Amino acid sequence: MRINVKYSITSALLIGAIFTSSDSLAWGQNGHRVVGKIAESHITDTTKSAIKPFLAGESLAQVSTWPDEMRSNPGKFWQKQSSRWHYINASPNKSFTINHDHTNNKESVSNILEGIHYSIKTLKDKNSSLDAKQFSLRFLVHLVGDSHQPFHAGRSEDRGGNRIKVSFFGQDTNLHSLWDTKLVENENLSFTEYAQFINTNNSELIAEYLESTPTTWIEESHNLANALYKSTNEEVGYSYVYKNTPIVKTRLLQAGVRLAGLLNALFDPSAKELETALKKVSM
């Protein structure tokens, strides 16, 4: 099923957000590839043709891990600036928004929401270079996935759960890593199998997922993180997996569907009802 559902991209007000560096990656390689693979099954043929030059022969699943892989690049951007693209932290009950002045160049981006909006603006700009659009598409695929990992909207004081030690079936890890990698890998599935198992063609569910904004995704993750801080004990085992794996699957599915909806909104001219919503990104 191809997604062509009304999709809005707006933002709320940010009050007192606190930014820190994050020690772990979101979803790990398999999780990000699941998101990309699901999105591939929902983008239109028009969108596929439009993004082909920006993928340089790769798939959405393949490019989904690129921003994490590039962290070993010695360049200033990757060593000093890129990490803050991947997350946003705030105190409980705070709302999130974008400083649009920060979305004019990649060096100014200070959090994941601004990174998403920078990428959207670059991809919309007819004057953007091919390199800039390739960079932005790869980052956008990755950041939509990151925005659905609860602890990329967690607390600054524990670095999104990185400083909270837990034991997963006797193996030492931390709360962030538990969610970005352990709970996904515990299914013992390849990313293609995982994507196939959780994907959906339920039009009502897809429409529900698309009635959202990047800010919504972050708020959802933030609320989940707050609940998980309270409900996660130091020892994690079967009951925790049983309770929380469905949440992991839902977040991965939502990310894939929403990524497809966003790409269709950007690149499929037939989705004319989306034009007004997309213009709001550049405000």
**Coarse morphology:** globular
Rounded to the nearest angstrom, the distance between the terminal CA atoms is 32 Å
Q: How much is the average pLDDT? A: 86
- Sheet with the most strands: spatial strand order: 2-1-3
What fold name stands as the CATH topology?
A: P1 Nuclease
What is the chain-wise order of helices and strands?
HHHHHHHEEHHHHEHH
Tell me what the CATH architecture is.
Answer: Orthogonal Bundle
Radius of gyration: 18 Å
| Beta-strand content estimate | under 5%
- Give the strand tally: 3
Assigned CATH class: Mainly Alpha
- How many discrete structural domains? 1
CATH homologous superfamily annotation = P1 Nuclease
User: Which stretches of 5+ consecutive residues score pLDDT under 50?
Assistant: 4-22, 272-283
Keywords: Disulfide bond, Endonuclease, Glycoprotein, Hydrolase, Metal-binding, Nuclease, Signal
Organism: Pseudoalteromonas marina
Pfam family, one: S1-P1_nuclease
Signal peptide: 1-26
Written description of the protein model:
It is a single chain. By secondary structure, this protein is mainly alpha-helical. It has a single domain, classed as P1 Nuclease (Orthogonal Bundle). The chain is about 50% helix and about 5% strand. The protein has 13 helices and three strands. It has helices spanning about 30-40, 45-55, 60-65, 65-70, 75-80, 110-125, 130-145, 175-185, 190-200, 205-210, 215-230, 240-265, 275-280, and strands spanning about 165-170, 170-175, 235. Strands 2-1-3 form a three-stranded mixed β-sheet. The radius of gyration is 18 Å and the shape is globular.
